[in-house]
Amino acid sequence: MSSAILPGSQGSVPPNSQIAFHSASVTGWTERREFLTSTISDRRGSALISVIGTGRPIGRSARTSTHSHRGSSVVLSGWDVAMTSTITFAAAVPIGAWHAFIPHAFESLANQGVELDVALLDASGDPRVVEAAEKCPLDFAYRRHGPDQGQSDAIDEGWRKTDGSVVFWLNGDDRLTPGALKRVRDLFDCNPDIDVVYGQSDFIDGQGRRIGQHDQTEEISDLLLRSNIISQPSCFVRRTALDSIEGVNKSLHYVMDWDLWIRLYRNGARFLHSDQTYS
Fold first, then answer.
1. Would you say residue 52 has pLDDT above 90?
2. If pLDDT is split at 50, 70 and 90, which confidence band does 211 have?
3. Which of 91, 206, 270, 277 has its CA 20 to 30 A from that of 199?
4. In which band, very low, low, confident or very high, does the pLDDT at 236 lie, cut at 50, 70 and 90?
5. Does pTM surpass 0.85?
């Protein structure tokens, strides 16, 4: 059997693969159009990849890999799949005090190369935060320099003042890894039923050098009810899922992230745990 070119792809199918095509209405894609879904299976009938496309390159290329959620693997090949995306991001950046790493946090957001609204919520009263915001390449969707009711209140304010379909927050001493949001977008695109994507986080020193990795992240399970197994700066939530539980609990100041994950989990949100490092 000769190799074949997938509709909507820029690669070829291995000679031993079989291809079946059918039309499917995919929620969350532009205008709910009918897209061609290609399922590639090996000789044993195990699904290797589901590709959503229109039969021609229409947008960016998504390099895919292996991920899982709720104990079942979603295995995606290394082919490049051309697709369009309606995924946009909204980041809340709550700042309570000046930290020398704040300019690096801003820069990491500015370099993501995706559609991203950033809300800066600065309660520090420190002019260095204003100066860093003015100097950084970000075009903030919203900025507030002044008092608030705490970190959770600031996060909620930031998300309310932005429009992205996937939300997250980044503290002033955190940073995203290069290309993190593109990789997260790819996972949401390939898994339209997923509400939450979360991955790994590195520990870095004051010079930004990696000194370790957060080792407490786990596959989603009831363990979440006893331990916070999700790394906050590497967790991304669809706004629809967030709105269904009425957002972050503004009365909490220190465990608002864990509380948010638990309420999403209990509400039936579907989580995907990635082995990729996002922050």
1. no
2. confident
3. 206
4. very high
5. no
